[in-house]
Write a structure and sequence with these properties.
The complex is a heterodimer of chains A (about 300) and B (about 550). With about 300 residues, chain A is an alpha/beta fold. Chain A contains 12 helices and 14 strands. The chains are: A alpha/beta (about 300), B alpha+beta (about 550). Chains A and B meet through α2, β6 and α3 of A and α1 and α4 of B.
Chain lengths: ~300, ~550
């Protein structure tokens, strides 16, 4: 559906995105994670046609996005700080979007007004941050885009509203094959929701893969040895990290889980247990690989 | 396609609705001024003037005021409607909308023009209604023509102002750019025109930099003149047509060029430049140069108490002022003291450009001043306020010789004192003439009498005054008007009716005495008469022209 080929974006002398290539399929929910300033929002703006690329290409169903209203009418971008007209209320914003987006669904908007506890006549400027975000989400979902770009979707939402949003997104994906890209630091929420995860760091795409496959690649093992095996005994295991507490070792190992356990058991541990890492742990491990970790930052 | 058109229409409608409060406020202010202030002005005038109810006294002034208000509202609405370019948040939203850049540009520009046009139309309609209550009314034709011209000018200024909005990243920076170009450039133009005139004795540069270097200045001056009913009136058809061509050529040219530039730049404008001072790298360089040149000149003039480029003091302060202006602009544009080095460079560039401009103007001025035509290329010379035409080869050669001598007099500083010259020809401080070349080209010169009547050139003037061509200028005044020719004399109140024969006799006697006079007559006291027939001519008769004086004094009625 969407193809990114060697996509590059520069701001003056600074390269925000450096030759990113990826493909986004229809009807999937993509999570976009990365360190602060890694280029997530820049990528979102390129996908929505706000920026034009300095190198490479970005296409939606074979067509360029920038300055292409036919394509942009199928895309809705909700930035981390949504913009509302001064003095506007939800109804007037809905009227505006209805006039500009051909797919705006008034009935859906009315139904969403019943779901979200937001006044349609109060000025949005006077609402709290969380309520403003809810209002923006209502408008975004009412547009019924084929591609929904959410930058920090869950920021400011209470747990109940987060749950509502997740359900609404899943419904939209199921009903309309809507593709959603969510950029967020809230990895726990993304883990529940996303099919695919892409990790960006310093403008480079570190990986972009199915969530299950990512989790299948990296494993956390808790193991206790009488005496810690030698290096040659541990050869064959791709150990990324190893922490020790007494006789208990916590290791992060890449590879197939069965092969890892076979190898560990061959070393006669006192105790060995395979734990599925969380997305947050995977993120931290991957960032450590890139030199972006607590020890390096604090010095 | 239908949905696309409706998207644009929807944005336009939305923008018009959004700007309604501001438009109504400005319209209310405009109505207070016209017809509010018009009524006040008429009431004031009614106490003291008989022609208080003559609309012609007010039409030009209030048309101009209405136009100024419309332009101010236009700038305000344009800045307001394009404020999304100055905010990253708003810019993200607008640029993500399913509209092309051209559609977005069109919708916002059209809404701004409609708003300003509404203000202008409302006030102009009020002016038209007021006109109906005046005893002397302005014609409907002039009203309509003025309104249509104002609409065209308003559209031109809309698109022209758009360029400055598109190149800017903030409101303040936009206003600086607008001011720098529309005030700075005309100011610099005025300085250089003045410099040209100061060095080019005899030649006056007729260009008006304020009018031509700023579309705002141009449109304002034309509205004022047009609504006065004087623009392009009483000219030959050819000249009038050419003038209209110039008017529409300039206006439509600015409109077309501005449209192309604004569309092109808006299309390539990076949305990430919102909040920066300017969206294109070349813009600060250009604005800085204008500001440095204008600011440097102003500081140089104030600090050195001279406005001429020929004083060393001036240049010292100009250089300092230029650098300072560039640095200040750089601090504002860069939001701090970074890039001081590039501010210095830009200030230096402005200084170099000024030096180049001064040298160029001085050279052009010097070249033009030295210009002397060849006699065989001159068809005729028009002199004495266009009332005399010299076509004889001998006269043309005398003129050219006089012209050459005057140039030398200016160069050498050979002048007579003002009190040493009495105006024999006519009561004026200058001597104006125009060459009409065989190829149709016209070259005009206007010299001070202090150079014309110098000892080495006055004999040539005398020769010209003795030519038959000079006396043809009196033919119309000695032709009766409804059978009447009237003579008035210096110091006498009565007008004396005379016959055509007597009038001709006076002229012939004057001519005879002139042909036997010498250059001493230019320092003689003169006796002034006026003869009015079909034409109206003054004649300054030197007191040594005794026959002419006797003839004229003999016409005085005898005292009883």
């Amino acid at each position: 559906m969407i193809k990114l080929l060697n996509l590059t974006k520069r701001f003056g002398g600074y390269t925000a995105l450096n030759e990113i290539s990826a493909e986004l399929k229809k009807g999937c929910i993509y999570g976009l994670v990365g360190s602060n300033g890694s280029g997530k929002s820049t990528l979102m703006r390129l996908l929505s046609g706000v920026y034009f690329p300095d190198g490479g290409s970005i296409s939606f169903e074979g067509f360029s996005i920038f300055d292409n209203p036919e394509i942009k009418s199928q895309i809705f971008y909700l930035p981390d700080t949504p913009f509302f007209f001064r003095g506007a209320n939800l109804l007037s914003m809905a009227d505006f979007y209805e006039g500009v987006y051909p797919t705006f669904d008034r009935n859906r908007f009315i139904r969403l007004c019943e779901v979200f506890p937001i006044s349609t006549t109060d000025k949005i400027d006077n609402m709290s941050k969380g309520m403003q975000r809810q209002a923006a989400l209502m408008l975004a979902l009412s547009v019924r885009p084929k591609l929904l770009l959410l930058d920090e979707a869950f920021d400011g939402l209470d747990p109940v509203m987060r749950s509502v949003l997740k359900n609404l997104l899943i419904d939209s994906v199921t009903e309309n094959e809507m593709t959603t890209v969510i950029a967020s630091h809230n990895l726990r929420e993304l883990e529940d929701l996303c099919d695919h995860i892409s990790l960006i760091h310093e403008g480079r795409l570190i990986f972009s893969d199915d969530l299950e496959e990512i989790k299948g690649r990296i494993h956390k093992v808790q193991v206790a040895f009488e005496s810690f095996p030698t290096e040659s005994q541990l050869s064959g295991l791709d150990i990324k990290k190893c922490q020790r507490t007494g006789k208990l070792y916590q290791m992060v190992i890449c590879g197939d889980e069965f092969e890892i356990m076979n190898r560990i058991n061959w070393l006669n541990p006192i105790f060995a247990e395979l734990i599925t890492p969380t997305l947050e742990e995977i993120f931290i491990y991957e960032m450590e690989e890139e030199g972006y970790d607590v020890k390096n930052i604090l010095g | 396609m239908t949905s696309r058109i409706s998207s644009v229409r929807s944005l336009l409608k939305f923008t018009l609705k959004k700007q309604t409060p501001q438009t109504l406020l400005i319209a209310a202010i405009s109505l207070i001024i016209c017809p509010g202030m018009l009524i006040a002005a008429v009431n004031d005038a009614a106490e003291y003037r008989n022609d208080a109810y003559d609309m012609f006294n007010y039409f030009s002034q209030f048309s101009t005021i209405i136009f100024v208000l419309a332009v101010l509202s236009l700038v305000f609405l344009l800045v307001s409607n394009f404020s999304f370019l100055f905010s990253k948040k708003a810019g993200d939203m607008y640029h993500a909308l399913p509209l092309t850049r051209n559609e977005l540009l069109f919708a916002r520009t059209a809404a701004s023009f409609i708003g300003a046009g509404f203000v202008m139309t409302l006030s102009f309609a009020a002016l038209w209604l007021s006109n109906c209550f005046f005893s002397v009314q302005v014609s409907a034709a002039l009203f309509l023509e003025t309104y249509l011209l104002m609409l065209l000018f308003l559209l031109t200024l809309t698109v022209f102002t758009l360029v400055f909005i598109v190149i800017s990243g903030g409101i303040f920076d936009c206003l600086i750019a607008l001011f720098a170009v529309n005030a700075g450039l005309p100011a610099l133009g005025t300085v250089f025109v003045h410099f040209y005139n100061s060095g080019s004795y005899g030649i006056e540069a007729s260009i008006n930099p304020v009018a031509y270097l700023s579309p705002f200045g141009f449109t304002l001056s034309r509205i004022a003149q047009f609504s006065d009913g004087i623009l392009y009136k009483d000219l030959s058809l050819g000249t009038t047509l050419l003038s209209w061509l110039g008017l529409f050529g300039y206006t439509l040219g600015v409109l077309a060029v501005s449209a192309v530039i604004s569309i092109k730049l808006f299309h390539i404008r990076k949305s990430e430049t919102a909040g920066e001072s300017y969206s294109f790298k070349f813009v600060p360089a250009v604005i800085s140069t204008v500001i440095s040149m204008a600011g440097g000149y102003l500081i140089g003039m104030i600090a050195s108490s001279t406005y001429t480029f020929s004083e060393l003091d001036f240049w010292v302060f100009f250089i300092l002022g230029s650098l300072l202006s560039s640095i200040v602009f750089g601090v504002i544009a860069n939001r701090g003291f970074k890039k001081l080095y590039s501010s210095f460079i830009r200030g230096g560039v402005a200084i170099v450009l000024t030096v180049v401009a001064v040298i160029t103007v001085a050279l052009v001025s010097a070249y033009n001043v030295q210009y002397l035509p060849k006699a065989e290329n001159v068809k005729e010379i028009s002199a004495f306020d266009g009332n005399c035409t010299y076509t004889e080869r001998e006269d043309i050669e005398t003129f050219i010789k006089l012209h050459n001598t005057v140039i030398e007099n200016y160069k050498e500083g050979i002048f007579v004192k003002y009190y040493e010259v009495f105006d024999v020809i006519y009561n004026t401080e200058g001597f104006n003439f125009e060459y009409v070349m065989t190829n149709g080209k016209k070259v005009e010169r206007d010299y001070g009498t202090h150079a014309i009547f110098a000892k080495n050139s006055s004999h040539l003037v005398l020769k010209l005054l003795c030519s038959d061509a000079f006396y043809k200028r009196y033919n119309d005044c000695i032709t009766p008007d409804n059978g009447l020719i009237v003579l008035t004399m210096d110091g006498k109140n009565e007008s004396i009716p005379i016959s055509a024969e007597v009038a001709k006799n006076i002229i012939d006697t004057f001519k005879t005495e002139m042909r036997s006079a010498d250059t001493d007559i230019f320092s003689e006291e003169c006796f002034y008469i006026n003869i009015r027939g079909k034409g109206d001519r003054h004649i300054y008769i030197p007191k040594s022209f005794t026959e002419t004086v006797k003839l004229v004094e003999g016409l005085l009625p005898e005292k009883v």
